[in-house]
Amino acid sequence: MSSLQISDHLKTADSLKIEKASRGKVSMKICYFDVKGKRHFQSYSFNEGEKIEL
To answer: Given strand 25-33, what is the order of strands in its sheet?
Structure first.
């Protein structure tokens, strides 16, 4: 998934949850709403050194 899609989900996020952090990897679940108001969940995995802006 591109960083543009991640940032779009962060803008409409209802909640962020760090599911697991170990050995240079972080797993995060984002709950967000689409333009119709439907709730969605998406999981992301980040490696050590990757940056995201909240």
So the answer is: 13-22, 25-33, 39-47
The span from the CA of 16 to the CA of 19, in Å, is 9
Is residue 25 within 8 A of residue 38, CB to CB? The reply is: no
Q: Mind listing the pLDDT tens digit for each residue in 28-49?
A: 999 988 888 899 999 999 998 8
Q: Is 1 helix (H, G, I), strand (E, B) or coil?
A: coil
With beta carbons less than 8 A apart as the criterion, state whether 46 and 16 touch. Answer: no
Q: Which residue has the tokens 């050590």?
A: 48
| Distance (Å, whole) CA 48 – CA 33 | 28
Residue 12 has pLDDT above 60, yes or no: yes
